[in-house]
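Q: Convert this sequence to structure tokens.
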Amino acid sequence: MSCRIQIKNATIVNEGRSFVGSVLIDHDRIDEILTSPDAVPELPADEVVDATGCYLLPGVIDEHVHFRDPGLTHKADFSTESLAAAAGGVTTILDMPNTLPPSVTREAVVEKLSIAAESCHVNFGCFIGATRTNIDQLRNIMPNLVAGIKLFMGSSTGEMEVEGDDALTAIFEQSRLPIVVHCEDNATIAANMKAHKAQYGDDPDIAHHPAIRSEEACYRSTAKAIELARLTGARLHVAHITTARELELFDPADSRITAEACLPHLIFSDTDYRRLGSRIKCNPAIKTEADRAGLRAALTDGRIRCIGTDHAPHLLREKTGGAARATSGMPFVQFSLVSMLDLVDEGVLPIERLVELMCHNPARVFGIENRGFLREGYMADLVLLRPHSPWTLTPNRIFSKCNWSPMEGHTFHWRIERTYVNGYLLYNNGQITNDGHHGRMITYMPRRAPRR
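A:
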């Protein structure tokens, strides 16, 4: 493999600018960025890639995935899902802790990272999960081991469901890491489900899912999380906002309390349940067209800080049923970037803002070192895109183990040409170049000391 690669004549999108130039890769790092198409590199390249007509972006950082490893590998694992990530221009992922066993201790986190080191083809990090009883684990976890703490505020099952003011306050008070919160109010959801079952039977139609996991359930929980963060000074990142009402709680100028939007809530609305049924069932639920419009508007006004996927693969047989029985979650990591580029084409946001949301800001929010930007000396995580290249998604193009996507049949208008991970060409024009190549565990900037 070439050690020094020049990608030239690309439209480079980085830190609010777009310009035609070149990026020089030397082994695993960006060695030089040339901001003019006529500029000559200081040292010659071993390989020159003419990217005329293409766009060159930092590799996407997907800060919200469920790769199901360990314990749920019948439907996904680090190997298959990281290949899907590479095919979608995603070069770094942060994995959530609700696996088997859940990653709620240092030992479980180390085990997960060890599995990833042996099988993940892109760069990786993970979260430690909060429980009602593991406050010592959260307080003492080494800051360079995890991206943050994942907290399910009354919206999970088993030990990872955390309710009660005392337990929640303790978590917010003791954390020295970012807290990523899934916000839904269980009491509201339970009451809604009981009422819907009484009226519609034991498994209400999937169209009732957003009424059961309602706007009120989301708003109550998000408001409570923000109140706790302001009271304690904790760093809060609210996952997968779904309602326009919740967005009213966020201040674009506040960098300590931020919000994430996920692809399904930006792409679909409740009208799509008729067409796609339980394939688009996820928690929190996809809601109204007005909510989707609100989320899209917040992409450019600062209230949404990051875009993730909540990539959550299930086998199709696990997705059968309605609002009560069908499993929640869908695969999306392979199609997040091309889906967002559809929104760029529609005028929802400029491509420079897309890069801010999908590359720069995830690195900022979680303190990821030397990734997320095209900067000299940074790791060479890059994605090369070709616009005006329509293609239609069919199952044979899907890399995820579950082998389905809610986007099947959709025609995208941008194509992922190449994905470089630490300078290595991992994905090239529809093909993985080496499924034995592994990514690296990400490193983090220094974290602050815990409050006492």
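The mean pLDDT is 96.
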